[in-house]
Amino acid sequence: MKMYSIIRTALMAGTLVVVSASAPAGELVFGSYLPPKHNVNTQGLEPLFKELKPKINWKLVSGGQLFSGNATLKSVGNRVADAGIVIPAYVQSALKNAFLSMDLMFVADDSMVANAAMLDTFFFDCPQCLADYHKAKTVLLGTYGLDGYSLMCRDPAITTIGDIKGKRIRTTGALGRFTVAFGGSPVAMSSGDMVEAISRGQIDCIFGAIAWLKAYPIEDSIRSIIEIRTGATTVDLFVMNRQSWKALTREQQLLMLRKMPGAVARTTVAGYFGDDAKAQRIAKKMGIPFHAPDKKFASLYDSFRKKEIAVVIERAKKRGAKDPEKIVEAIFRNYEKWNKLIGAQDRSNLKTLTDKYAKLLWEHIYSKVDPAKL
Questions:
Q1: Strand partners for 21
Q2: Residue-by-residue DSSP string for 90-148
Q3: From CA 316, how far away is CA 331, in angstroms rounded?
Q4: Domains (range + CATH), the chain
Q5: What is the model's pTM?
Q6: Regions of the chain short of the pLDDT cut 70
Q7: Which letter does DSSP use for residue 80 in this model?
Q8: What's the CA gap between 316 and 352, in Å, rounded?
Q9: How far apart are CA 86 and CA 70, in angstroms?
Q10: What digits encode the pLDDT tens for the residues 161-189?
């Protein structure tokens, strides 16, 4: 029997919590810190693992039973599990180059385009990005995109951007710079920690995708939503332990790559677009008002956005990234490419859009990836 175990010390009532997972020989373990019913698990991972059987058997262990989001990269590298979901913002020092994918979130608004552009860049234009994962003893196989970033607040009196001045806003990465620019006080924390923090009043607002109102149990804590809907970013859907990846046969590796576009597309489109629509229905049912940004927001945001590229490049240099200007240049070149490939989107039919996205990802990215070079 193959055993994966991790002991986590939790300062909760002075107890020591021991969490472990085991899998039969030949079965791989995927550790997800996300709640079991989160769309990444239900739309992305669970269908993927069904498609891979019986040639590759995966066991999904969700709800942070194995490790937190912050600890995923290190834990997967140490083979606590064979794979996991990595938030680059949580491990910026380890992903010196690859973190550019998240730090540039305010120069794009379309998650499908942004995600495809980042995958294109990682696999074909940024060997130093893939090297970040190699150093962490891992392999990057897929990312997903999310957009619709807005402010979800506890206080119903927070109805304009000006109202966040001095307020404690949950952020990660570039969201912190935005919050400071508009007078808020950024509080960096994981998505798991934000649930309790907003419930207890430790933070005033969450700066995140509106889809989170469905994906996380926060709807009872939210009383006002400022519908900014700006920015688009990517998250690492599938980061695999390097030894586990190399232990697969070439046929198995090719199968993983063949099925990855579907998982990426389902998570990005059916998952997050779908949860966005569900979140709006939840808000309406619960009487949570949506407020449009005030008239001053557009000009202030435009000014903020114009400075972002230079800020991101300078931050990358300080982290020790190699040739960040070239990485950013490749990302923007791929933005243009994927804007043309994806074209107009009809978000009223998510099944059709998911299938279209998966087909494009396969034809223009995954079919060209050599598993031996990952």
A1: 4
A2: GGTTTSTTTTHHHHTGGG---HHHHHHHHHHHHHHT-HHHHHHHHHTTEEEEEEEEEEE
A3: 14
A4: 2-373 (3.40.190.170)
A5: 0.89
A6: 1-25
A7: S
A8: 38
A9: 8
A10: 999 999 999 998 899 999 999 999 999 99
